[in-house]
């Protein structure tokens, strides 16, 4: 018996759902903006439904893509930024490699040893790659966590060395600006991880739509991934 499609039971066809999710992740749009664009194309859907599509299918599409993902580099640039979730500040741990590939992101209520440990454990278990060098800011939590989890890596703090990840932090805040606020830690994690997934896809860190012109690569990749879920 063939596996059940993730789109089974949805009233709208898969191509409509995938386009809505892709638009939301790719462009600086709100759920209401996507609703309006779909209505202009003859598809009447409520913005709440768009929100549910994004929350449901973003993790599935990213998970389907992980088998096509390039192995990350061995130099990791790690940083934390902050966003508001339901009016409360939350920290976003993130890392990129020397090629600009986003390693992982994690939304945390705290900026402490436990959060740093969860972030690195998640990244290491997901990618099964151990970096040889980790560059961080001067936060005191990092030396102990890195000695515990990646003792072979050279850890150092260097002025301006974290510019690559800080540029990604700036891009994330620019992306979040059109939204009407993040309501829960769970939805924030999906949106922020989805943004990282889209950045990696646009930067060519997946073996997806490789024969497609750059301007059409994201659309073609989403079509491929939709067939996989």
What do these coordinates show?
Helix content is about 50%, strand content about 15%. It is globular, with a radius of gyration of 18 Å. With about 230 residues, the chain is α/β, with parallel strands linked by helices. About 35% of the residues are buried.
Identify the notable features of this structure and list them briefly.
five-stranded mixed sheet; alpha/beta; 5 strands; 229 residues
Please estimate the helix content: 40-55%
Choose one word for the global shape: globular
Extract low-pLDDT stretches: none
Largest sheet: 5 strands, mixed
**Within the largest sheet, what's the order of strands?**
3-2-1-4-5
Specify the structural class: alpha/beta
Number of helices: 8
Termini separation comes to 16 Å
Sequence-ordered SSE layout with sheet pairings:
Elements: H1 14-26, H2 31-40, H3 47-65, E1 75-85, E2 88-97, E3 102-108, H4 113-127, E4 133-135, H5 142-149, E5 154-156, H6 163-176, H7 185-202, H8 214-228
Parallel strand pairs: 1-4, 4-5
Antiparallel strand pairs: 1-2, 2-3
Helix pairs in contact: 1-2, 1-3, 1-8, 2-3, 3-7, 3-8, 4-5
Question: What can be said about this structure in brief?
Answer:
The protein is an alpha/beta fold. It is 49% helix and 15% strand.
């Amino acid at each position: 018996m063939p596996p059940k499609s993730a789109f089974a039971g949805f009233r709208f066809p898969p191509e409509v759902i995938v386009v809505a999710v892709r638009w939301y992740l790719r462009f600086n749009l709100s759920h209401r903006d996507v609703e309006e664009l779909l209505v202009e194309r003859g598809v009447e859907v409520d913005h709440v439904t768009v929100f549910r599509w994004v929350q449901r299918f973003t993790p599935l599409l990213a998970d389907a893509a992980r088998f096509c993902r390039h192995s990350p580099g061995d130099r990791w640039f790690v940083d934390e930024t902050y966003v508001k979730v339901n009016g409360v500040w939350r920290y976003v741990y993130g890392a990129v490699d020397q090629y600009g590939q986003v390693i992982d992101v994690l939304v945390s209520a705290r900026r402490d040893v436990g959060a740093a440990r969860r972030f690195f454990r998640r990244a290491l278990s997901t990618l099964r790659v151990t970096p040889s060098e980790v560059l961080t800011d001067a936060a005191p939590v990092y030396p102990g966590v890195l000695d515990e989890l990646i003792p072979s890596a050279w850890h150092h703090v260097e002025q301006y060395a974290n510019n690559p990840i800080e540029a990604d932090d700036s891009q994330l805040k620019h992306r979040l600006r059109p939204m009407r606020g993040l309501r829960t830690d769970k939805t924030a994690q999906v949106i922020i991880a989805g943004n990282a997934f889209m950045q990696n896809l646009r930067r060519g860190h997946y073996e997806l739509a490789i024969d497609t012109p750059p301007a059409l690569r994201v659309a073609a990749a989403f079509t491929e991934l939709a067939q996989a879920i």
